[in-house]
Every structure is written in structure tokens, then in C-alpha cells.
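Per your request, structure below.
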């Protein structure tokens, strides 16, 4: 038998019972579909994490000054950082343990029957804090270089701190008392995406912070363009304090690629098991149906053997039938899996990631499953003696 005759016989055997063949193929279809969806959705989800990786986290760098470092970062060093290519905004922040629990009130009158004092955090910041924390001025303005040069007694309060102090409007120049001294509130800062704890803080210029022992910069907040965080994390210590880089600790965002790989591995680990189980079920189904087909076609096998067909011809015929069944399931499963990936991506408004190699490997995997499943039935058919088969 040449290959064409063998192929025709295998196709005839498959099409003789189309319903049974379709049901047998279904197991392989489910297995291949699950595998394709697993790999495709995992790759798409991983790519989506990179594409929509939290821009806030991916573009924020924080430089912290060690406690034992004395004046390692000057206030004007922030200007050196903003000159770095890729930096969009930066600000210096200074606070101490003592300044984290200062008594602040908005009324000069001390009433022993009422709780008028609020324990708030007082921090000294540079003028670029609103941009560094990605916040906005709800009312008023933030202090600028002019306030620092004149050493004006002004403060900016966080949104929650303003509510706690009862400050609702700034047109009458309200003041807050920190200790015995009054400071004019010129702005209310809110909607902060970074350093949200500053919502309950009082922010003062560095010239005022010295009165509360807030002198040295404790951390620098830096925002970068997307993709520039790693570079800025390496350059910022040198720009802030040349020669004292060892005293600065840089907190850079994690790599989005690692997050993508982690998610993809987790998804693969779960769904690959399901896909392999489905493939095993499909292989068992093919083996069972092929064996039943062999038993039903005993007379045909005996007739072929008596007319001169060798054992290898019989084995090749049934092996090819099971292989074609698996190949058909692989092609259908791969097609359904790709359609499912595109559908899921369209529903989630994602960009589908399809590997062309997957579309080629999936049908071959189905054919391999069919080949392995048909080994025993084909060997059993080949071992039949013509006389016994005809009898």
C-alpha cells in the first residue's frame, strides 16, 4: 500500500461513523482549546500588566537619608535632580519624631471645656511638593521662593487637617497656632496620590521648620517619565549628595516585566493542568473508540490479511486513523482557542498576544495524542491471524 491508498483507507474508516468520530475528537478539541487559551490568555494578561502597569508606581522614586547622616542633602539639591533627563517633578521633605506629634489649633483662645488642639504632623517641604505628591491645591496656593526669601510665617495644610481644624475658607486669612506662634494658612492641599499621610499634616517652609527642629532633609520624592525610573534611581544619589551616596537609600519601583512573568506563570500553572487532564481524557477516548473499531472490523482485517496485507499495513491503517482524529481535534481546538483569546481580549479591551508557533504546535500536539492513543489498538489489530479473524 502506498501512502495515498493508506490515507484513503484511514479517511474512509473515519467517515464511516461520523458521529462517533466527532464525539471521539471532542476530547482532543477540549484539551487543545484549553491549552491554547491558557498560553494565549496568560501572555495577553502579562502583556496587559506591562501596558497598564500602575503608572504611579512605575514612575515614582524615593530617596531616603540615613538617620545618622548629617545634612547629607541640602534643600537646594532638589534643583539638581530636576535637571536630570526623565525627571518630571521632585520635592524634599523633612520631619522628625518630635514634629510628628505637635499640638496645632486654629483658635488662640484656650478653652479647658473643649478640645481645641489637634495633634498633627508638621513637615518642612520644598516648594515643589504639590507636583511631587501628584496633588492639587483645593484652595489657595503653595508657598514659593518668595515666601522662603522673606521668611514669611505661612503654612499649607492637608485636606483632612483643614477639616480637623475647622478651616473652610481662606479669604479671611485664617491662622493656625503651632505652640505659641500663629501662622497664616495660605493653601489647602488635597487629592494626593503619593504620601497620602500628608493629608493630615501641616506643611511649612524650611525657614519655618527650623523653629521646630526640622532642619535636615529626610527624604526626596521624585517623579519620572515612564521607563526612566531605573536610570533616575541610579543617578539621583549622586545629584543630591555627591560623595555621600552611601548614606542615601533609593526606593525604586519593581520591574513590570517580573510582575508580568509572575502572573503568566501562575496562570499557566493552573490552566496547564486542566489542559493536560483534558488531553488525557481525549487520548483515552481515542484509544477506546479505536479499540472498539478494531473489534468491529475483525472480518475486514482478516480479509485484508488473507489478500496479502502485511501486519505493518494493518497497524499503519489504524495508527493513521487515530492520528488523523487527533490532528482534526488539534486543528479545531487551536482555532477555537485563538477565537476565545480574541473574544476575551475584545471584551476586556486588551491587545491580544498570539504566538504563531502556538497555532502550529497545537495541531501537532493533537496528532501526537492520537498517535499515542492508537498504538495499542493498532498493535492488537496487527497481531490478528487471518484464519482466526475470518472465523
Amino acid at each position: 500500500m502506498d501512502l495515498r491508498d493508506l490515507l484513503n483507507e484511514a479517511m474512509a474508516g473515519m467517515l464511516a461513523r461520523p458521529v462517533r468520530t466527532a464525539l471521539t475528537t471532542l476530547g482532543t478539541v477540549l484539551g487543545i482549546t484549553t491549552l491554547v487559551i491558557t498560553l494565549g490568555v496568560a501572555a495577553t494578561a502579562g502583556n496587559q500588566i506591562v501596558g497598564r502597569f500602575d503608572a504611579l508606581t512605575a514612575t515614582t522614586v524615593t530617596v531616603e537619608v540615613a538617620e545618622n547622616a548629617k545634612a547629607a542633602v541640602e534643600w537646594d539639591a532638589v534643583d539638581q535632580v530636576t535637571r536630570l533627563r526623565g525627571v518630571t517633578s521632585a520635592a524634599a521633605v523633612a520631619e522628625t519624631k518630635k514634629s510628628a506629634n505637635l499640638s496645632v489649633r486654629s483658635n488662640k483662645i484656650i478653652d479647658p471645656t473643649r478640645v481645641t488642639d489637634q495633634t498633627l504632623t508638621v513637615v518642612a517641604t520644598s516648594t515643589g511638593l504639590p507636583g511631587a505628591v501628584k496633588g492639587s491645591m483645593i484652595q489657595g496656593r503653595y508657598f514659593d521662593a518668595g515666601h522662603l526669601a522673606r521668611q514669611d510665617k505661612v503654612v499649607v495644610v492637608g485636606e483632612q487637617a483643614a477639616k480637623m481644624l475647622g478651616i473652610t475658607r481662606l479669604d479671611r486669612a485664617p491662622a493656625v497656632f503651632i505652640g505659641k506662634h500663629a501662622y497664616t494658612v495660605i493653601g489647602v492641599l488635597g487629592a494626593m496620590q503619593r504620601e497620602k499621610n500628608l493629608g493630615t499634616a501641616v506643611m511649612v517652609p524650611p525657614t519655618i521648620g527650623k523653629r521646630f527642629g526640622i532642619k535636615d532633609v529626610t527624604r526626596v520624592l521624585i517623579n519620572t517619565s515612564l521607563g526612566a525610573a531605573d536610570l533616575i534611581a541610579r543617578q539621583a544619589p549622586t545629584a543630591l549628595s555627591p560623595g555621600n551616596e552611601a548614606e542615601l537609600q533609593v526606593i525604586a519601583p519593581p520591574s513590570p516585566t517580573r510582575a508580568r512573568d509572575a502572573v503568566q506563570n501562575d496562570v499557566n500553572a493552573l490552566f496547564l493542568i486542566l489542559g493536560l487532564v483534558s488531553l488525557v481524557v481525549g487520548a483515552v477516548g481515542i484509544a477506546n473508540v479505536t479499540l472498539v473499531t478494531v473489534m468491529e472490523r475483525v472480518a475486514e482485517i482478516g480479509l485484508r490479511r488473507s489478500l496479502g496485507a502485511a501486519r505493518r499495513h494493518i497497524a499503519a491503517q489504524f495508527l493513521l486513523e487515530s492520528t488523523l482524529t487527533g490532528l482534526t481535534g488539534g486543528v479545531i481546538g487551536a482555532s477555537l482557542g485563538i477565537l476565545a483569546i480574541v473574544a476575551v481580549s475584545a471584551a476586556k479591551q486588551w491587545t491580544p498576544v498570539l504566538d504563531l508557533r502556538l497555532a502550529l504546535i497545537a495541531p501537532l500536539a493533537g496528532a501526537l495524542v492520537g498517535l499515542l492513543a492508537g498504538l495499542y489498538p493498532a498493535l492488537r489489530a496487527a497481531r490478528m491471524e487471518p484464519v482466526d479473524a475470518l472465523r
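The mean pLDDT is 81.

Regards,
D.
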